[in-house]
Amino acid sequence: MDQDTLNYIFIGLSFALYIGIAFKSRASSTKEYYTAGGGVSPLANGMATAADWMSAATFISMAGALALGGYAGSRFLMGWTGGFVLLTILMVPYLRKFGKATVPDFIGDRYYSKFARFVAVLCAVFICMTYIMGQMRGVGVVFSQLFSIEISSGVIVGALIVFLYAGLGGMKGITYTQVAQYCVMAFAYTIPAFYIAIALTGNIIPQFGFVGEYIADGDPVPFLEKLNNINQELGFSKYTDGSMTMIDMFCITAALMCGTAGLPHVIVRFFTVKNVKAVRKSACWTLAFIAVIYLTAPTIGAFSRVNLISQLNGIQYSDAPEWFSRFRDSGQMTFKDKNNDGIIQYTGPLAYRKSSGELVIAPSENAKQAALEDDTDAMADPNELIFGADIMVMANPYMSDVPPWAIALLMAGCIAAALSTAAGLLLVLSTSISHDLLKKIIKPDLTDKEEVKWARIASFVSLAVAAYFGVYPPSAFIAKTVAFAFGLAASSFFPTLLIGIFSKRMSREGAIAGMISGISFTLGYIVYFQFLGGDPADYLLGISPEGIGTLGMLINFAVSFTVNIFSPAPPLEVQQMVEEIHVPSGASGAVDH
Predict the structure, then answer these.
(1) Which residue from 534, 537, 148, 73 is spatially nearest to 348, judged by alpha carbons?
(2) pLDDT at residue 482 tops 90
(3) Which residue has the higher pLDDT, 589 or 335?
(4) What does residue 108 show for φ and ψ, rounded to 5 degrees?
(5) Angle between the 276-294 and 42-53 helix axes, to the nearest 10 degrees?
(6) What mean pLDDT comes out for the span 210-222?
(7) What is the Cα–Cα distance from 524 to 480, expressed in whole angstroms?
(8) 22: which residues sit within 8 A by CB, 6+ positions away?
(9) Residue 56 in domain
(10) Is residue 242 pLDDT above 80, yes or no?
(11) Are 470 and 140 in contact (CB under 8 A)?
């Protein structure tokens, strides 16, 4: 059986499983639509949360970033992992005890203001729309490679599938679908890694191979030494050295961490379990399931880097391995013979090259791609192999001659990763509009049936907009697009939620002013440098749009506390409410929701 047929079978079976689960567990009430009825077990919710958390950016892009950027790519690994710890310690137990299923719901009640709720809805829409763009792009990339279609067509197909099982099933359908998706992702990510580790290092455990010896060329040599030597021979900094400015690395990592703690689609997952005790168990399971993927990603990135350089750089185009034609035919990889010698020359992204010992910073990926498409040498780029970082995870098994069934499983996992997070984001978007905007602000007499109907309408409209931006994304690099969403969450929700939980004195005026100023600054900065042609040389303090959310977060904190000084104190019942959520469950007077 050929590879394409296997791919179709594995993906078809996984789709049938997801849609079947969604229909069987479709929501019949607002409680089931928003929180799956609150009866999901901690183990199942841990799997579902891990699937919701591990988006296309994690599954597809993170290993690609590590492959091309080395140490610099670890900003995603450190930021997202550390952020989940912040979320489970600082946010989730208190929000769960407060008993509100959405972030705008908490903000509206905690800050005793419909306008605060409205601002929170707008923030949720901006965050989730930006995030879901990356997921739709990931779906398009995978479908494009699988079916040899345009990425735009792949985005549309993926959007229809997401709407079918997320729009109908709500949180109840999504939860059990994501349990299945996690299982697919875990096996799809780790099994090819085992094969590749054996081929390159002789170790069956990828992590041991990463710190072990490289044996593929005959003479054993420490794997990381081999990797660093390859980089230095091509003019890069060492794979294990930094290739970003310290302040930008710090700000991106901090934005990813704090943005994680403010992500509405992850927070709402912990309302699907019975009580606060179950929340803590669920968080532990989630961290364990996430670790399976996150501890494997660095090894996949490093293995794919070695494979790509050793198999393509410096060889005759006519002698390129068979797998290259598969990615060339789908348009994911292109050879542009700039010096007409017929030899593939690939030295890596300019952003990680060194010249006379100094780092050379290249313009944005979009500008680079435009220059290449126009056949100009404005960038003086010696690379003749053109591809995106997002393709590395899918290409790596082909490079290592992994069995066809394992490759087919990986393809199913790539799609599962994008679909799982897209579904969670879609739910948050729809509930923010139907519950927090329509039910709580515009039309309080909305019935449960009407609320679910409007949620499904909002899902369709939101997905249509997300699909458009999946076709025309802010960045061709999925992880970078997703990083913008984390920056928006860090600059808006994280400070407001943190202050609302731990400070009973914060007023609605301070919180509203902080949210507006934080997200406005961050969004304006991203739009200017990503869409309006801002020069990277003009970055404020050298901070890229990916990391500007950290500065936006500090602005939010500063404005909130400054405005609060001149504002009246919150009502006594609000202050009492904040005190109550800190009382441990089972203590005298405590209420466990």
Answers:
(1) 73
(2) no
(3) 335
(4) -60, -40
(5) 50
(6) 72
(7) 17
(8) 164, 165, 166, 168, 169, 173, 174, 177
(9) yes
(10) no
(11) yes
Question: Structural domain tally of the chain?
Answer: 1
Q: How far is CA 176 from CA 36, 46, 533, in A?
A: 9, 11, 43
Residues 508, 511, 514, 519: is their CA dihedral positive or negative?
negative
Per the structure block, which two tokens stand in for 467? 């699909």
Q: Rounded to an integer, what is the distance from CA 3 to the centroid of its chain?
A: 28
Q: Is residue 592 part of a domain?
A: no
Q: 479, 65 in Cβ contact below 8 A? A: yes
pLDDT on residue 373:
44
Tell which residue, 121, 71, 489, 461, has the closest CA to residue 298. Answer: 71
Chain-wide mean pLDDT for the chain? 76
Helices vs strands, H then E, count in the chain:
26, 6
pLDDT at 269 over 50: yes
Say which CATH number the domain at 16 has.
1.20.1730.10
pLDDT at 274: 77
Element (H, E) at 402: none
> Rounded to 10 degrees, what is the CA torsion of 400, 404, 405, 407?
50
Name residue, tokens 């500065």: 551
- Asked whether residue 395 is assigned to any structural domain, the reply reads no
pLDDT tens track for 69-126: 666 667 777 787 788 888 878 887 788 777 766 788 888 888 988 899 899 888 888 8
Could you give the angle at the alpha carbon of 312 between the alpha carbons of 307 and 313, nearest 5°? 105
pLDDT digits (tens, 9 = 90+) for 360-371: 333 334 434 443
- Of the candidates 397, 421, 432, 426, the one whose C-alpha atom is nearest the C-alpha of residue 411 is 397
- What is the torsional sign of CA 473, 474, 476, 481? negative
Identify the CA nearest to 456 among candidates 247, 162, 205. Answer: 162
Predicted TM-score of the model (pTM): 0.73
Task: Supply the pLDDT for residue 558.
Answer: 96
Q: Kindly report which listed range (192-196, 327-331, 582-586) carries the lowest average pLDDT score.
A: 582-586
Beta bridge partners of 343: 316
| Residue 149 structural domain | 3-304+401-580
Higher pLDDT, 417 or 545: 545
What count of Cα atoms within 13 Å lies in the side-chain half-sphere of residue 290? 23
**Backbone phi, then psi, for 222, in 5-degree steps?**
-50, 130
Q: Evaluate whether residue 115 is within a structural domain.
A: yes
Q: Which strand (E) or helix (H) includes residue 355?
A: strand 354-355
